[in-house]
Amino acid sequence: MNEGNIDKASVPDELQAIAVLGGSGFIGSYLVLNLLQMGCRFNLLVNRTDPDLVSPTGRIKTFQGSIENETALEECFTGCEVVYHLVGLIAETRTKTFQKTVVEGTGHVVAAARKAGVKKIIYLSALGADPDARSAYYRTKFQAERQVVASGLDYTIFRPSIVYGLQDKFINMLAGMIRRSPVTPVVGDGQYRLQPVYVEELCAVMARSAREGFTSGRIYEIGGAEPLTYLEILDIIKRILKKKRVTVHIPVFMARWGARVLELFMKPAPLTVDQIAMLAGGSTCDQTIAERDFGVKFSPLENQLQKYLGK
């Protein structure tokens, strides 16, 4: 794995145990690799035993459970100074809701961290987290942030824009659609702007925040090198894949109606009203603050996509 822009001289060779929640997910798996490269040993909370998470060096210890179980969380956190909380939910299912998983789950994490003597929580939120957001996803992310801030523990919060990489479910979904279909549907005018950040670069700075003092009590907004409209992102993917496709614009009200119908019959639905609200609202930030603090430079989308989509 590419270590990105980590300055190894600024990272201690050995760190005490770190707990990672969501370590087997898309972003979490990259974070785990970064922490391993930094010499960490850590505990992972997993829903089921995964042989891929077994460390040949013995530096990964797994605990079975979920963030709804405070006892399992306390066991996972025992002996750990830092907890990475990456568990989230992009669409509700029949058993998992934003309120239950994001808000109440974070409450369990905070309570267990206090009992276990954890010193710091590093929380993966989302760019757009706001108490008045139109999206329930963003509103509940903000509520979770407030619990972390009010915990009495040290904290660092990361708010990334769309995160992409080999296993992401957004850019790869668009690429698959462009490969298979002569028509590319776009909700609305497609002028809403996004700022995709490469997963390896996000996880490189997240890993450093475990021991970098300047991250204490900070909220970092993370995005790629430049904001791009949705149409520009599609054009980049088409160019890399060498595909010419017809763009068909779908009015926002029709997309919402279709999403509501899907949500009646499918949980999780492939497209939700909440996701349309997030997309139409855009997701951009001033990434130069994080770049300055961490001494990094986030990549343009096309540069990284060329490495794996262009093959």
Give an overview of the whole structure.
This protein is α/β, with parallel strands linked by helices and 311 residues long. The chain has a domain of 193 residues: Rossmann fold. The strands form 4 sheets. Strands 3-2-1-4-5-6-11 form a 7-stranded parallel β-sheet, with helices on both faces. A two-stranded parallel sheet has the order 7-10. Helix 1 links the parallel strand 1 and strand 2. The radius of gyration is 19 Å and the shape is globular. The N terminus is likely disordered.
Q: Based on helices, strands and strand pairing, what is the structural class?
A: alpha/beta
Largest sheet: 7 strands, parallel
CA-CA gap between termini: 17 Å
The parts where pLDDT drops under 50 for at least 5 residues are 1-14
Q: Which homologous superfamily in CATH is the superfamily of the domain at 8-161 and 199-222 and 284-298? A: NAD(P)-binding Rossmann-like Domain
- Please state the CA-atom Rg, rounded to the nearest Å: 19 Å
The CATH class of the domain at 8-161 and 199-222 and 284-298 is Alpha Beta
How many beta-strand runs?
13
Give the % helix: 25-40%
CATH architecture annotation of the domain at 8-161 and 199-222 and 284-298 = 3-Layer(aba) Sandwich
> What general form does the structure show?
globular
Write the element-wise H/E pattern from the N-terminal end onward: EHEEHEHEHEEHEEEHEEHEHHHH
Strand order of the largest sheet: 3-2-1-4-5-6-11
What is the mean predicted local confidence, pLDDT?
90
**How many helices does DSSP assign?**
11
Strand content: 15-25%
